## 1
Amino acid sequence: MTPTRRTLFMGAAALSGALAAARVLTPDRAYALQALAATADWSLATADVEGDIAPRALRLVRGRAPQGLSGSLYRNGPAKFRRPGGSSQHWFDGDGLIRRWRVQDGQASLAARFADTRKRRQETEVGAMLMPGFGTVGDPRARIGSADDASPANTSVHKVGGKLWALWEAGSPLAMDPETLATEDFVTLRPDLKNMPFLAHPRIEPDGRIWNLGVNGRQAMVWRLAADGALEDAEVIALPRASYIHDFSATARHLVVVLQPWVHVRNVAPMSAGFDWTPEAGTQVLVVDKADLTQRRVYDLPPFGFFHVGDAWDEADGTIRFDLCAHKDMDFAARGAQEVLNGVPLGGEPAELAMVVLSPNGRGRLERTGVVGEFPRSDPRRAGLARRFSLHTTGERADRPLASAVAVTDWSSGRTRSFDFGPGHVTDEMAYVPKPGGTHEADAWLAGPTINLKAGVSELHVLDLMRVEDGPVVTWRADVALPAAFHGNWA
């Protein structure tokens, strides 16, 4: 099927239609909710940042930098939610702030800049959050000609072809300068595919080739890019159902798409209100051959919800394995993330780390671990290949919807080792950083930030993967607190 601009959603008509049901959050209610958030011990995780963070050195507070550790951890997440004339109504809809945590010559520094999107410029001009989003209905004053006009560019960031790409899931990548963090423009991969959706979780092969999806109901664009970001191919495939898809996986030979029973059934605003939880339908997994996208197989699993999956791999007998973080349902997406933004305890079950096994006989199973886990990561050098470890956050509780700990699960032994920073910290997703000269996936550090709630600042930590339970080998402290980010990568 030849993709055109009309084959996928999120064009001007789709977004403008969302404005028909628009409602404005009044200034009184916005500031009342802001005051409510301030009563929560973790409210810094969704606090507003009022401007860019100029480059600054971090203060060493524990240990010392490991020999050979050098590079930058780029992170992205929402950091502006509230304006006097109207505020975002969902955590996923704030303006993206790109952070660069740099380690060089044993020292660490921090810089951060907002993605200078069309959305942010419009909203700054009028002093209100205008654009429709995942859980925010739009304001009639919003000027929308395409999905990119509404993009907060707030979900992830990858270094591609010498640029940073700030990613959302319903529009184009936004190119930024990796040194200055200055915004350049949205990336057009082909003129007739301008403004098309590009998920925030591309799958990158060890040689740098990029696979991604752009989802519209029961169809998806399959993007294949060279390591430098040049488009190699784009083809639309049909999906068995219109599931919400935030992430997917890939082996060396296959694309692996999990289709949860949170299904789009109506066109309403906000977007999340258009989905119904239908557990009777179960969960499906679509496996597509990378070499021939017409070759596909569908597996049936029990119902579960999810946001994130880990890297998949093919075993010698044709079995496919991958880890994911399974939710009982998608209440967090529909309701919980609004409550987090407004300072209300979630009162739900955290995600559980699990392994999906797809057998050559067409049967699939979900092997639960009983371990609380989110944001699964692994050795990027082994993407699509058999591996032993998963890195993930843990420590979430029903009354605290944000992680306090980092963990490593060893699939060969079934053992999970963790370090808990304690209830005074909010822990972000951490990145896997290979040690120089190391060849085994155990030869790695974990690098990532936490928010130190007591000190009111952000900290950068480095841990040894094989001794994660010993805690950080080094910690640096910033003089500012940045809200929780979603995703990022080490470069």
Note: The chain has five helices and 34 strands.
## 2
Amino acid sequence: MRVLITGARGQLAQQLAQCVPHWADARFVGRAELDLSDSRACAEAVESWKPDWLINAGAYTAVDQAESDQAVASAVNAGAPQAFAQALDRCGGRLLQVSTDFVFDGAQGCPYQPDQPLSPLGIYGATKADGEARVADALPVDRFCILRTSWVYGPVGRNFMRTMLNLHAERDQLKVVADQVGCPTATVGLSQACWRALERQQSGILHWSDAGAASWYDFAVAIGELAQMSGLIASAAAVVPIPASSYPTPARRPSYSLLECTGTRAALDLPAVHWRERLKQVIRSMVQL
């Protein structure tokens, strides 16, 4: 199976590269090889290599910066998926579009189902929702899979966990938002879900995160505790919970964005692993580096 994967230098693609299945002939392209803001280049990449599947792991993920950079965010998060989908429609391939919990507004108090209406709060979420819609318009439902996930982190790249590790090592006290709830998702499990979706020719909309729930405060506390226990840092900082109102940002974020993943785990035959257990695995892997 020929698989083209975008975002080669991003945290998800780097994890995907570490666990390429024996049945996949994978080609990874990063920004240097493919500018996702260039729709024509996106289409030409598909037409040139003619993949059986394309995993679009590349995205514009600077949530706050997107508020003042809407044109580029839209080109990358909506224009590129549309160009990929249209080219794949002509070439006969399939698309796995990685999306986000930020397509929801967080107004409800129970996990979001895959078929619920979207209501993004900011430009980032809106452009990702637009990308989903354009994919669905361009391809038959049996030839695309939209995989929404949340709070993604891993041992490489820019993410909350790596930022917190640095801050725990540098400071005595951290203030972290405690009234936004979701679920951290390690790239190791997310990459397994992506490859399994391709192997099983999955279609439609899937939700994937690790199991359980957490606030950013809970996540920050666990990062410090587990990193100290593993010897990755000498000591953890004291973490003080604060409301989101005390840490204003350009982009509004959902206060609750848990994704209902039961159906996806059954469809992919993958176990539910609690986010804290996944975090422990990631930190251990970093100690071994």
Note: The first strand starts at residue 2 and ends at 6.
## 3
Amino acid sequence: MCFHGDVTVSTFSFPTTILFGAGAVGRLPEELSKRGISRPLLVTDAGLARTPVFARVASLAPGAVVFSAVEPNPTERNVLDGLASYQQNRCNGIVGVGGGSPLDAAKAIRLKVTHELPLAEYDDLLDGADRISANVPPYIAIATTSGTGSEVSRSTVITITATNRKTVVFSPHLIPVLAIADPELTLDLPPHLTAGTGMDAFTHNVEAYISKGYHPICDAIALSGARMVWESLPRVMADPHDLEARSQMMMASMMGAIAFQKGLGATHSLAHPLSSDCGMHHGTSNAVLLPFVLEFNRPAVVQRLQDLEAQFGGGDIAAQVRDLNRRVGIAPRLRDYGVTEAALPALADKAIQDGCHQLNPRPCTREDLLALYRAAL
């Protein structure tokens, strides 16, 4: 792919159709027309809605109804409000624009358009996927960060009102019909969000690689994706308008989301309550916690950690991740983000209820998770 002069926009399908490359967002009008979407609900968050990036996307969908009330950690209330807007405005499709929060909220709104059960009934821990059918409206996802890879994933994470717990809803029917991955949309992302979302992509790839289960396709993708973040994230932090590095980060983000269909691990179970209870950015939480979880997991996955260490030039994997955090400006401790010792027992209660640790290579008890919080504090 060329990154100077004329830039190629590639089209390929894995696991969904992806338009990838600088300028890809310009294809939105024809992609809406192909799918018969004349009045989409344009889902985003309030901050992004005020930016030139969003204005550019909105100009390409003049018939859209804007819903911009998605919170940084999307809630059930956001989903229901978005559903009401969809229904009241007689929309016939959805376009999500943003990072993981708007893209996840858009997936859940899409689900609720045709599925009447409460969101809690679709919890992956309750075999909610069995209650999700292919009867959902078309959804196009446009990523403006390189982090969650929600534009190609089959999951959405929503904080449910009854439990105040981040709940994973997981089904192949939630995968967007089209992902538009245009690295130009990420060029002016603020440094702290570039770092946090970048380390989210890194954690997805690393945890997918060491998670339990047999999936060599995902393993290969994860190993390559982790290396791409390792090489490209520091470049992006040094030069935010490095289009080649931004492109590599956007690809690595999607690779992480594709890889974690295999599974994640304890880092994510620990990170989810930090977002819902303490307001920490999800990717930043992952970045702080990952070195401690890797140390915990070493006895169970010695060879896999050595594989990762080799990708990053050798040395202890936990030390390598801590150094990467330092290079991209992420503080090393939970206390640096206002987390207190008093909060840890309640966080551990929620972490053990989170399903991600079930695929961690080393089994976790609540006490293990509490100890990891304390080590990271």
Note: Residues 216-238 form the longest helix (23 residues).
